[in-house]
Every structure is written in structure tokens, then in C-alpha cells.
Specification:
- The protein is an all-alpha fold.
- The chain is built from 8 helices and no strands.
- It has helices at about 5-15, 15-40, 40-60, 70-90, 110-130, 135-145, 150-155, 160-185.
- Helix 3 crosses helix 4 (about 70-90) and helix 5 packs across helix 8.
- It is elongated and about 60 Å long.
Length: about 190
């Protein structure tokens, strides 16, 4: 944990609301991004991210400083996302907007056709990710969309690193099959 975060955590644990506010400010974008990728809706993501920070505030006294604060807050955000989707009975829906961050939405005047094909491919992938079970969708979002390492995902999900690797491998296999089925019109 970097020294700034460590100092903020110590101050917040002593009851300094400004320090906790600074932690929220530092991590709000990351939390929102994860929640948005899990829920697929910006309005829902704002609500769930806010709920995650409220939960973090209420449980802050239980935070173990041997963990990275980012891992702890991400775990709360993932759990809040899963809880929200279960309560709402919603299909989990990763958003296509995640690809715009990677430049996949940029329309090149010379290659509009390629851009359209890329967007269609992205849409197929997102639809397939949305069809995955929660445990598989979560590792795909954290690893392939957020770029997190296995160890960090293991800490966030509270499971062994081998389980993360296995889930990711199985998720990718299921994703590949779903995409192939959709292309063949089987779904």
C-alpha cells in the first residue's frame, strides 16, 4: 500500500471523516468502473458504487491493514454488484462502453467497414459475457477487462489463485462456445 493511502487509512481508522472522503475520492473511479462493467448500466453503477462505499464506511473498523486497501474496496464493490443484481433479478450485463476506453469505438475514415465489424464483434463478445454464470463473468471482468493479476483477483474473491485460473480458463472456454453457437444461429 502506498504511503499516502496508508496515512489516509490510519487517519480514517481514528475517525477522521476527511481522510475517508479522500480514500473515496482516490478509488471512486475504479470502483465505478468495476461496478459499471458488472451491471452494464451507468445509473445502476452509480447507485451500487455509492452503496459499496457506504458498506465500506460501516465496516471500516474491520479493515485489516495487511491487505491492500484497493483489494478490500474492490471486493466490497464486486459483492455489492452481485447483491444488487440478485436483488433486482437482473441479467448481469457488461456494457459495450468498456471498449470505447480501448479505442475500439473510434471510427477511422479510411476504414469504416473494419470499425463496424469490430463493433459487431465487440457486441457479440459482450452478449456472450452477459450469458455467463456470475462466477465466470466476474473473473472475465476483473482479469480481461480490468487487467487485474491472478493474485489480486484471488484476494478480492477470497479464493485460491488456482481457482481463479481455473475459472478464467473455464470462462474463456464457455465464452468461445457461446460465441460459436451464436454465429451458427444455435442460440
Amino acid at each position: 500500500m502506498d504511503s499516502t493511502v496508508s496515512k489516509l487509512v490510519k487517519r480514517a481508522k481514528r475517525g477522521d471523516p476527511e481522510a475517508f472522503g479522500a480514500l473515496i475520492e482516490k478509488y471512486e473511479r475504479f470502483v465505478f468502473n468495476i461496478v459499471y462493467r458488472m451491471t452494464g448500466n451507468a445509473e445502476d453503477a452509480r447507485d451500487v458504487a455509492q452503496e459499496a462505499f457506504i458498506k465500506a464506511f460501516k465496516k471500516f473498523s474491520y479493515y485489516d491493514e495487511s491487505w491492500a486497501f484497493s483489494t478490500w474496496i474492490y471486493r466490497i464493490a464486486i459483492n455489492a454488484s452481485i447483491d444488487y443484481m440478485r436483488k433486482r433479478g437482473k441479467e448481469n450485463s457488461v456494457s459495450l462502453d468498456i471498449f470505447s476506453e480501448n479505442g475500439m469505438d473510434a471510427v477511422d475514415a479510411k476504414n469504416i467497414e473494419e470499425s463496424v465489424l469490430q463493433k459487431e464483434k465487440s457486441k457479440e463478445i459482450i452478449e456472450a459475457v452477459n450469458a455467463l454464470e456470475e462466477e465466470f463473468r466476474t473473473v472475465i471482468v476483473l482479469h480481461d477487462m480490468e487487467g487485474m493479476e491472478y493474485k489480486e483477483i484471488s484476494d478480492i474473491l477470497g479464493c485460491p489463485m488456482g481457482t481463479v485460473k481455473s475459472r478464467l480458463s473455464r470462462a474463456r472456454g464457455k465464452l468461445r462456445r457461446l460465441i460459436e453457437q451464436r454465429k451458427g444461429g444455435a442460440l
